[in-house]
Predict the 3D structure of the following.
Amino acid sequence: MTKWAGRILAFIGAGHLLVGLLLSRAYFGDWLLLRLWGHWWEDTRAANAFWGTPAGFGLPLFVIGLLVTWMDRRRITPPIFLPWVLLAWTAVIAVSVEPTPAPLAAAASVLLLSGVRRAAGPTGSRCDAGDHGAGQCGTRRAVDFAGLAGDQGEQRTAEQGDQGFHVLP
């Protein structure tokens, strides 16, 4: 579930970004020549295209989808706040703007929520049919975001290895 949620979110984000850039290519010159400076009180087409495409939700959604997929491949359970924030965000978009792929993103958020809850089940473990051998049918690891800051820096760096996160056993 988590893998498909990440893939769907990345697909929607990439699609939004690519289609938006194709539709707003006439304004690239305005963007690159810094003609958006001072547009706060002006409602220009170039400014609207900028805030709808490179500064819109497509790129962050693409990155979140890639991150969720990356975490799933490493058997790291995303934090529970992520699907809840995504679900709230996509719900607001879905009721505010039509047409929108937000209902599909909301479905991916529900998939992600189900995957996170399943991974945090009573035993905290996950076994797939393809997992064989000692240690291969492993537990999902939870990420300790609280341990990323503070005065534990040297100890954390020594323990984190190549994961980039402080990972709890």
About this structure: The longest strand covers residues 76-77.
